[in-house]
Amino acid sequence: MTEATARRIHPAGDPLRRALELLGDQWTLLILQSLFLRFRRYEELRLRLRISPTALSGRLRDMVAAGMLDKTPYRDSGRTRQEYRLTERGLELWPLFISIWAWEREWVQGRRDVLPSLRHVDCGQDTEAPLGCATCVLPVNARDVVSRRLDTKGAAGATTSKRFRRKDADFLSADPLMFFPDTMELLGDRWATGVVVSAMLGARHFSEFERELGIGPGVLSDRLTRLVDVDVLCTTTATTRTDAHAYRLTPKGRAFFPALAFIAEWAREFEVEGQKPDIMLDHVVCGQRLRPILLCEHCGKALDRDRIVFSHVPSPDRATQPT
Ligand SMILES: [Zn+2]
Ligand SMILES: [Zn+2]
What we know:
This protein has 323 residues and is an alpha+beta fold. 39% of the residues lie in helices and 16% in strands. It has a 3-stranded antiparallel sheet, with no helix packed on it. A 3-stranded antiparallel sheet has the order 6-9-10, with no helix packed on it.
């Protein structure tokens, strides 16, 4: 195999980069969340998110192409319209959304009062859905995990960044389930996500982030400032380096680890045969590769998608749309 062929089949950092390019976009996350809440029709999505038809169609097309959604026609008033359903690949993202919910409730001011609680049907208790390891079924803390980067060419980097402007989403804040302000600072922008992933993998200094991500200094500086503003990173003064500051994850930043672990796991499906993952996460307690799951802290069981219920969720209003 020539080197060029090998590169085409095993592009550097491809699986995680592909996952971040898909998921590191606010509209995509909001569309996915809406689909989990069973808003499936094009018009329902458009009205719920007040998204432009161009943006909605583009995101849906990308998600269908990535195998996350299926498009099914249905008849409405004699016309054929489209309905979107999550495929298995799309449904696999449910723990990511539960992690986001849990993190926002725990770490973002005022969110606990407005977000619904989650009940584990098996034991009947409200659960915070902590991260667990599928091998030993024990709770996992970010500190119990050793991360190894296998791709050195900037696995977390992204080629482009479609930044979602805050003002586009002001109206969303009226619905607490619809807008995750701090999460979107981390995940709604690929560069920001890249900075957080690099920080989890040990980057501390401006030049390290720059090198790892291949990011321009202006963009990096902007994302670092934003992440400090939302208390995901903090600065410490470095004494021996030429860089003025070192950046560290705060407890709030480290607590975002479960969401990133689920993204890294989901990205593995994008690996082609024989390709090594960009990042390896090992659970030091059992010595195995971390396969992330969610646990119930009361009964200790692994949570299943069909065995959890939120206390209240909106449902699509079909009053004006005959089924
Ligand atoms: Zn384990
Ligand atoms: Zn339970």
